[in-house]
Amino acid sequence: MTFAPITTMWRAPMALQLPSPPKVGMVSLGCPKNLVDSERILTKLRSDGYSMSPDYAGADVVLVNTCGFLDSAKEESLEAIGEAIAENGRVIVTGCMGKEAEAIRARFPGVLAITGAHQYEEVVGAVHEAAPMPPSAFLNLVPERDLKLTPRHYSYLKISEGCNHRCAFCIIPSLRGDLVSRRPDAILREAEKLVAAGTKELLVISQDTSAYGVDIRHQPREWHGREVRAHMTDLSRELGSLGAWVRLHYVYPYPHVDQVIPLMAEGLILPYLDIPFQHASRNVLRAMKRPANEAKVLERIKTWRDICPDIAVRSTFVVGFPGETEDDFRYLMDWLEEARLDRIGAFRFEPVEGAAANDLPDPVPEEVKEERYARLMELTARISAEKLEAKIGRTLDVIIDAADDEGGATGRSKADAPEIDGEVHLRDADGLKPGDIVAVEIEDADEHDLFGVPVGN
Ligand code: SF4
Fold first, then answer.
1. Are 410 and 265 in a shared domain?
2. Sign of CA dihedral 334, 339, 340, 345
C-alpha cells in the first residue's frame, strides 16, 4: 500500500473586503486662518476614517468653510454654497458666515447644517450625521482621543469646558470662560470608541457636570436612531447602556441631580456622586457665592439613600475661608456628622491670585485654619472608618487596577474613584489583571481602604 505524498498547497490570502469610507469634499474660502481651520477639520475627519474627494461628484457630503470678513467675501461664500448645492446637493456650511445662519437658510433651505468658526466638533459631528461611517475596526483605527494618560481600563470623558458660576475662591471661569458643552453625540461617539478599545470605567468630568447642555439649550442630537438631549440625565442613561461603569464627577447640587439617582438604583450608572459642597454654613456659602440650602441638601441626601441605598457621596470642603467663624465651622462639623458622607477631601483656604475671595475681610489666621482642618480630618476619618467597617462581610464588585506576582491585587469598589478615594486590597487574587471586575468578599477595613478575597474567581 502506498500513501500519496503529502502535499501542501499555497493559497493566496483572501482579499479583505473593506467597506468604503464616506468621502468629504471641501471648499475653503478666505484667509489663512480659515485654511488652518479647514486643515484641522479635515485632519479630524481623516482620523475618523473619512476619505477626501477632489471633486463634487465623488463626495458624499461637501463642506464649505466660508469667510464673512467683507461684503464681497460674503457674496463669494454664498456663491460657493450655491455652487456646491447645485453640483452635489449635500452641503454643510461652516466658518465666519455661520453667524448668519438665517440668511443662508433663507437662500439655501437645503443646507444640511450650519456651524460657526472654530466649532470643529460641531462640523465633524454634522459630517458624521450626514455621512455616517460604516462600523469597521479597519476604518476607525485612530481613537477619538489622541493620547490616553490613564490605564487602558478607565478613561476620563470630558463633557464640557468652562463654568457659569463665579465661586469667590475660584479663577477657573476667568481662565477657561463660561460653560461650553460638547454635543451629546460627539461625547457618546468618543465613549463608544473608548469602551470598544477596552475601557471598563468612564469617569465623566467637567467643571460643572450638572450644568451640561445649559449653554446649548439642551439641544437634542440623533444618536443610534434616537434623540439624546444635551442633558446630564439623557447622557448618563446613554453612557450607562455602553456596558462600562459610569461615574459622575463634579456635580453641582442642582435640583435635577435627583433625576440621575433612579439610574443608579437601576444599575445603569455607578451609585456614586462627587458633589463639591465646599461648606455647610449659610454665611460661608454666601460669601463663597455658592448655593446656600444646606438643610435641603441633607434631606435630599436622605432621599437619595432611600432610592439607592448603596449610593456613595463624595465631597470636598474648604476650611478657613475668610469670615468663617468658630460657629460656622461647628455648624459644618454637625452637618457632616448628620450627612455621613462616604468620602471627603478637605482643603485649607489659600488665596489664589485673581480670586475675588482675596478681597474679603476677616481672614482666618493660619493656626486656626490648621486646627480646624485637623478637627475636620479626624471627624471624617472616623465616619469613613465606621462606614467601611459596615461593609465587612458583604460581597462587592471590584475593578482591578493592579496585580502582583504573589497573588495580591488592588482594585476599587463602585464607591471608589481612582486616585481620590480608597482601594480594595485583595489576597488570593491569582490570575486577575487590570480591568477585570470581580466579586470580592470584604474581610476587613481601615479608615480608607477595604481588604478582601475574590469569590467564585
Ligand atoms: S468652583 Fe467649580 S462651580 Fe465654582 S466657579 Fe469654579 S469651576 Fe465653577
1. no
2. negative
Domains of the chain: total? 3
At 62 the pLDDT is 94
pLDDT (0 to 100) of residue 2: 38
Do 185 and 321 lie in one domain? The reply is yes
Q: Which domain holds residue 442?
A: 395-454
Q: Report how far ligand 1's centroid is from the alpha carbon of 105 (Å).
A: 38
Pocket of ligand 1 (CB under 6 A): 163, 165-167, 170, 172-173, 207-208, 252
Considering the domain architecture, whether residues 259 and 363 belong to the same structural domain is answered as yes
Q: What is the distance in A from the centroid of ligand 1 to the CA of 290?
A: 9
How many H helices and E strands in the chain? 12, 20
Average pLDDT per 10 consecutive residues for the chain, totaling 457 residues: 39 54 88 73 83 88 85 84 92 88 89 83 86 65 54 90 91 86 94 93 93 96 94 97 96 91 97 95 94 82 96 96 97 96 94 88 96 97 96 98 94 95 96 96 97 88
Closest CA to 216 of 231, 204, 227, 238: 231
Contact status, residue 320 vs residue 360, Cβ threshold 8 Å: no
Q: Where is 185: in which H helix or E strand?
A: helix 184-196
Closest by Cα among 36, 152, 156 to 420: 156
To test the ligand 1 pocket, which listed residue (166, 178, 181, 207) has its Cβ within 8 A of the most ligand atoms? Answer: 207
Residue nearest to atom 3 of ligand 1 (CA): 165
Q: 366-389 and 326-339 are packed helices; what angle lies between their axes, rounded to 10 degrees?
A: 10
Residue 135 lies in a domain: no
**Closest ligand 1 atom to the C-alpha of 166?**
5
CATH number for the domain that contains residue 65: 3.40.50.12160
Residue nearest to atom 6 of ligand 1 (CA): 170
Residue from 160, 169, 170 to probe ligand 1 pocket by mutation (most atoms less than 8 Å from CB): 170
404 plus 380 within the same structural domain: no
Take atom 2 of ligand 1 and give the residue whose Cα is closest.
207
Structural domain contains residue 166: yes
Are both 374 and 402 inside the same structural domain? no
Q: Is residue 226 part of a domain?
A: yes
